[in-house]
Amino acid sequence: MLTKRQNLMETIKGGNPDRFVNQYEFMNLIMEAPLGEMAGPGQTIKNGWGITFSWPADQLGGFPVHDDEHKVLKDITDWKNQVKAPAVATSDEAWAAAVAHANAVDRNEEFVTAFVAPGVFEMTHHLMSMEDALMALYEEPEDMHDLIDYLVDYELAYAKELINRIHPDCIFHHDDWGSQRSSFVSPEMFAEFFLPAYKKIYGFYKENGVELIVHHSDSYGVNLVPFMIEMGIDIWQGVMTTNNVPELIEKYGQQMTFMGAIDSGVVDFPDWTPEIVAEYTEKACKECGKLHFIPNLTQGLNFSSFPGVYEETTAVIDRLSKEMF
Amino acid sequence: MSKIEEVKAKVEIGKTKLIPGLVQEALDEGNAPGEILQAMVDSMSVVGEKFSSGEIFVPEMLIAAKAMSKGVDVLRPLMAGDTSASLGTCIIGTVAGDLHDIGKNLVSMMIESAGFTMVDLGVDVPAERFVEAVKENENVTLVACSGLLTTTMPALKEAVQTIKASGLDVKVIVGGAPVTPEYAAEIGADGFAPDAGSAAVKAKELVA
Q1: What is the ipTM for the molecules in this complex?
Q2: Cys-Cys link to A34, which of A89, A294, B119, B132 (CB 3.0-4.6 A)?
């Protein structure tokens, strides 16, 4: 039996996996790294960038607050005065728990995986609201280029420290680039603003020993796939069924692997049942096949919003591995 | 190209900085404010169609709506009291338990561009609040309810049914990622739209 790591590599390279890669099993996520403050359920916090996040207890996630009082960037042309990056944590103490966790991982079995979020696109709209960020791409493109460069520099400073401390094998990087029906920006705009940013970021990781780049965007993104490949993404996690995943695998599977195809929205809700999970998981596995595909809820971490859904999905994938391999 | 045609063309491509001057020039040429407004509404219909078909994306739609809004600012003082071009007031909000506002804001912009006066109740709006807002505002013809989460679909249903049960003479349109035309019909909504461009078209149809 292959290790989780070997089985993953066989799957993405189109070799001979002996079972499905089961959701996030190949990633040993080092969540202790000092990535910055994030709001938990019931909390309102202000992070190092000054962005206020609120997560009401009865909601499924947190949101940046963008009223006039809380918006960090009120005028893109004045971003140099209004946006101040926090310092990257560089003390041994700040990294101790992450280092201890990484050292305890058997790298033959799993990938030591660093979680990085939010991404560059998300940072632009967290700072200034989605509407302002998207309009600024048109109205003040030079300032947006400069702001994006600044965000990339920060990411690279963090990446440098991260690599020195835990030597990750894999990066799990979030940046949502679309709704379930379309990408937020046109391919041309994406190529102008975000492709160069990610070529720098993912290029830096790859040049420094990271073997695998997994990018999360639980959205439509067919029109961005060529750019994802160009920037060095190995696995697109969160790929929704609106993308026609079997067709993507057929067309691009040799260059990138697709992880998802079980839309969280249709299986992960208060009245979920094992039958519903089985129906959508079987559909995903049977339609997408054994190579260049990892069956997974589209949610961007290794859990579900409602208790039991993630574990049930795992159990169905295990059963399907026995039946199909 | 006449000035009014130029206004129409520049709104469509979101030339926000040029529009106020062009609208003024169109007025100076003797075009009626209502005619210029209609030209901008027409451009936004084109923008909505292009968005629905995937030809353009959210930034292009936002920038066009902003351009139109700059043009309306020039026309507004000249059209005070003239309600002939208005399709009435639309109350809009994201239903209780749901904090998503981006889609709702886009829909609001596009419905406004179609000729409605918008009253935005924000997010996490209880069903009764929609009814109160209809009563508090003048000439309300439409209520637009948004819900993005599977988990807030019951709240969407409650909002629609509370508005309908109030007996108020308004149409209700719904939308959001998990909403289907079948679900919209099942919960008693008058209309459904899958995206912001279609929402503007459907809104006009519902109050025609």
Answers
A1: 0.90
A2: A89
